[in-house]
Amino acid sequence: MAEHDTSAPPLFDIGDLPSAPAASPDFMDLRHPDYAYMFGFIQADGHLARGAGRKGRLTVEISIRDIAVLHEFQRLTPYNSSITERVRATNFSEKHHSATWTLCDQEARSRINGLGLPYGRKSRKITPPRVEFSRRDYLRGVIDADGSVGHTGQRLPFVSLTTASAAVGAYLCRYAKSVTGAARQIRRNTRDGIFNVTYTKEAAIQLAGHLYYPGCLSLARKRTAADSLASWKRPEGMSTRPPGRRWKPWEDHVLLAHDDAGAASTELGRSEASCSVRLWRLKTGKVRQPEDAPPGA
Fold it and tell me: In whole angstroms, what is the distance from residue 54 CA to residue 78 CA?
């Protein structure tokens, strides 16, 4: 297959192909929307492990509420695989109920590994495929696994992605700009080296509508959230570029806690650029730290 140049993603999608059969001879042909989505999801949320000799396994563990997508992966895979459930304690819940899809077949693993899912730790290594692939479906898979879609605390539409991969983050920025015209630049946050890319308001609506088209394979809850964004209308009097407003101490605390302009912008309802400048001023001593501000500020 021809090598794919990720530097200038065209708006080309193969979204009108029929659903892949359960025993497709073209397993993981990324020109097919369902396989492109599946690969993006697996890259972001899967784990490929080696075993002794020719053994090994691919696993994808997600919340039980999203188990339907694992059944779709099983349907799309013409090799034996299994789905199991378990309940365990995590940092977020004493009884986290999850589902895990497991694929052990060596031929299937080799195919997936060759497309760009490394064995072992892979969060920083993954890149968009180097073969022809259905771009919006691949990105929807990545966002379903490692992103968010919905409304901020100020009821503003947003689409965001959190990733350790510079290549994947940059690709989303390039592709989203071609769809929405909104430009983003990725920067690792200093706390954990993660990239956060966020789109809000009209850009979020356009991007969500493009990625989550009718009949696409996706997490049901995120597809519902994406559909809900379309009803948002810019309030009368809200300018395209909001007028500047003074930073309050609690906002500085939120910004410093995130240590990332993109992540904080969603919570604060401010632009990423504004948060980036404010964070730089706080870190360089250009403005006072929030605990130094006078009472009532």
Answer: 19
Dihedral over alpha carbons 237, 182, 159, 100 (to 10 degrees) = 180
SS3 category, 97: strand
Please indicate, yes or no, whether the overall pTM of this predicted structure exceeds 0.70: yes
**Separation of alpha carbons 45 and 70, rounded Å:** 12
Distance CA 11, CA 66 (A): 29
Bridge partners for 150 per DSSP: 158
The Cα angle at residue 81 between residues 79 and 86, in degrees rounded to 5: 170
Taking only the tens place, the pLDDT of each residue in 146-195 is 999 999 988 999 999 999 999 999 999 999 999 999 988 788 887 788 99
Can you name the residues that pair with 160 across neighbouring β-strands? 148, 198
Contact 113, 49 (CB under 8 A): no
- Nearest Cα to Cα of residue 166 among 146, 199, 136, 196: 196
CB atoms within 10 A of CB 186: 17
For residue 233, give every residue at least 6 positions away whose Cβ sits within 8 Å of its Cβ, in sequence order, or none.
none
Tell me the Cα Rg of the chain: 21
Cα 101 from Cα 85, distance rounded (Å): 9
